[in-house]
Amino acid sequence: MLQIIKKLFRSTKKSFSSADYWEERYKAGKNSGSGSYNKLAEFKADFINTFLSEKSIKSVIEFGCGDGNQLSMINYFSYLGLDVSPTSIQLCKRKFKDDHKKKFLLYNPFAFDEQPIHPSDLTLSLDVIYHLVENQLYELHMKHLFQSANRYVIIYSSDYENEQVNHERRRSFTTWIKGNQPQWELVAWKENLYKNETDESNLSLSDFFVYQKVSRVQD
User: Distance between terminal CA atoms of the chain?
Assistant: First the structure.
């Protein structure tokens, strides 16, 4: 009986689609999650806004724009938001229809290299990596994140390995970067302020990791 349960569990994990999960979530009227609201959103926005100003960032691509709530708090000069959810893209297009600094495109990991997307000063992955339960999608996300940046990559995520639990799977992404992106180095790390929160709406296991292209002259 135990072996049957294990097989059923493995089968369930294999059939899970992270893209379908988020599309159904947004279609049902739900939001991007607690990390994009309240104190956590303010903390992330403060960090990114300071970085944009200090490094004179002119162009940004975000992999996983979600419902746009976090985006509304950040002062981008030129922004391209990508997401696997068509509903998410439509939400953001409606929300920012009068903001000509922002554009949104549906992200297809399997056809990304065929799209005419020019690299930006900075790429972002905020609370996305641990939601990529499929190995192939995780690998593609990381590859596209780094190939789309000329100067910096900012990742906000947890950084340890763990098995899939519901729609999350923790990844040691810094290990992946060391093995696959030698031209990039970690230049800053910022621990989030809410790791010990008892209120689940403000609890996050993620930190900020900032990578810079080492072939570039240091600022």
Answer: 61
Number of Cβ within a 10 Å radius of residue 144: 21
The Cα–Cα gap between 61 and 194 comes to: 26
Where helices occur in 115-205 by DSSP H, the ranges are 135-147, 173-180
User: Would you say 207 and 61 are in contact if contact means Cβ atoms under 8 Å apart?
Assistant: no
pTM (2 decimals)?
0.86
φ, ψ for residue 42 (rounded to 5)? -65, -40
User: pLDDT tens digit string along 111-164?
Assistant: 999 888 999 999 999 999 998 989 999 999 999 999 999 999 999 999 997 776
pLDDT tens, residue by residue, 3-44: 433 343 344 445 778 888 778 888 887 876 676 788 899 999
Cβ neighbours of residue 5 under 8 Å, at least 6 residues apart?
Answer: none
